[in-house]
Amino acid sequence: MAFYGLPLKIPNRSLTSVLILEPVLGIDTSQPSVDAPLGSTPDSQNYIMREGALQPRPMLSLRQTNPQPMGNIPILGGIEAISVTGERYPVVSGTTRWAWYSNTSWSALSYVVAGDPDLNDPPSGTNTDYWDFTQIYYAEKDENLAIGASGSYQSLYCWQSNTTVFSSLTGAPRATTVAAFDNFILAANIRSGSSDYVQRVQWSDRGSASSWTQGLAGFEDLLQMRGDITRLLPLENRLVVLGENETWQGYRSDFPNLFVFQPIDTAIGCPYPWTATNTPRGVIFLGRDYYVYLLPKEGGQPVSVGQRLHRSIRNLIDRPERAWGAWDHTTDVYQLNYAIKGGSGRPQRAAWLNMESGAWAPQSYDVVSGGLSLTRGFEVQLSSSATTWGGLQAAGITWASLNMTWADLAGASEERAVLVGSSAGTLYHFNSNATSDNGTPVRSYWQSSSLAGDSPSVTKTMTRLYIDYQADSSSSLTVSVSQNQGASFDAGQRIALPTSSGVSQAHADTYTPSRYPTFKIESEGFRYRIYRFLAELRYGGRH
Fold this sequence. Notes:
Radius of gyration: 27 Å
Structural class: mainly beta
Mean pLDDT: 89
Helix content: under 10%
Strand order of the largest sheet: 8-9-10-11-15-14-13-12
Strand content: over 45%
Number of helices: 3
Largest sheet: 8 strands, mixed
């Protein structure tokens, strides 16, 4: 048509596009929001990204009727001790006391003097002396021992499964970290008399946790290592030796050199030992540069897995020596918990890494009042006494009196959970059915990246946002849109999410113009799963 002129000029007409976002890539602060891939987020709190969906995180609930077994003493360590008969007993430690969980109840353990009267050395640490734990078979009693080391350089301590007392471990050195490997007990960062041997690894006789000077017992000083040894962790067929500035490993060898130690990486270490956590992929820990590293179980040097959230941790973290990690096998998630500047001095923020997808998800715990300052956590299996043989026997119930088969009871007696202690001595567990952190409201929000970054010269209008979701009960969320890449948001719209066992769809009519549209969803106290967003954008003017 000649009246359009030559060369041909098409009239200015609007163009509508739909962008599909699957919000499971996790946080990404490593690049500008306009360059981030669809499905990632520059800002999020209290959501998790797993199994192809975005959902509010599990929330903190009290465990049974006595959640403070040691009073107001901070929980500084813990382990899931397993007896030779397969019964599981969570054990936690504080500054001066231990407690154990059995038959749906927590009970404080009493300290007793071991066979040698000179071993009257009850724990007396401070509320920042975190504990390290391991477990080993004790042949003399045909039972397993839980062994703990305090950061206060006291004796190693031990507890025999299914007993009510704990004591100092006979013959053991004073150390800050302990691990079981090939039926040896190894301790590191040793104090002897008034001298500290911060690069020493010492081991017991094989098969005898209380023999440290006879048989195959021995020690080695890693004099080439720069800085203190901070943590020992077994990993497959080797022992990982983490130092402040370096990462080493140890292997079993032939007599007389029972262990051979060698450096893995002399540039990367772990000065924050309680972040070091064994996972099915290897050991994950926080480095001095605030990057999160993975030491692969297949071998090799530590590799960074925390690039996407490095800036967030670097800007927020405070007292990193109090940060700690935990692994949740049920959700395939590594939890990194840390204190924040201007906070309580204990961990109030967390970053959860889903190892299946590689997505990082930030979390927060009562940041305003600090009442949920979480000190240590570990994975446990909590059992109901009504469905274990010991519990049935204690209750006077016989097999003949049961109206169910053992297969009917299987599973009802087991509950995998991450058990978490606080600075107030309260024990919680993460509950996927809870809607608040033990009564404290939890605000969950997720913000999209800046959309349509490939067309910077054209204004877009977000006309509608579709939400594909699933909800086991009626829920709702608020949708709001930003015209300035998240600096501020327009008034939000409340969107109902009716109960839906299958994937259903809700939508919000937005009509917000912006060069780079950005939207945010938020909710409080609801349980649902979001699979994808469909953002309808109109490019240019309307004619």
